[in-house]
Amino acid sequence: MHQVVIANRLTDGIVVFLGREPEWLEGLENCQPAQDAAQAEALLARGAAAEAEQFVVGPELIEVELREGVWVPVKMREAMRSRGPSVRSDLGKQAEN
Q1: The three-state (H, E, C) secondary structure of the chain, written as one string
Q2: What is the pTM of this model?
């Protein structure tokens, strides 16, 4: 099971993922998923530290899988969150805004 940390950036509410470097990214492209429970806990601790610094809110671990060479969320909820608002297709990431 591979996991990454997902959260919302406090400045604009955008869904972000913890990247390989200590940075938050809007996509999974440069994330390094945890391969085991110890790595997952270490990632989550980095997310909690970023929340304490008031950079993100609600860091949590989500499952991801590799599909056609790209990491994608396993569950529909996280997949929808990562694409932005679903009520209007002319807004959010799906509209490339």
Answers
A1: CEEEEEEEECCCCCEEEECCCCCEECCCCCCCCECCHHHHHHHHHHHHHHHHCCCEEEEEEEEEEEECCEEEECCHHHHHHHHCCCCCCCCCHHHCC
A2: 0.84
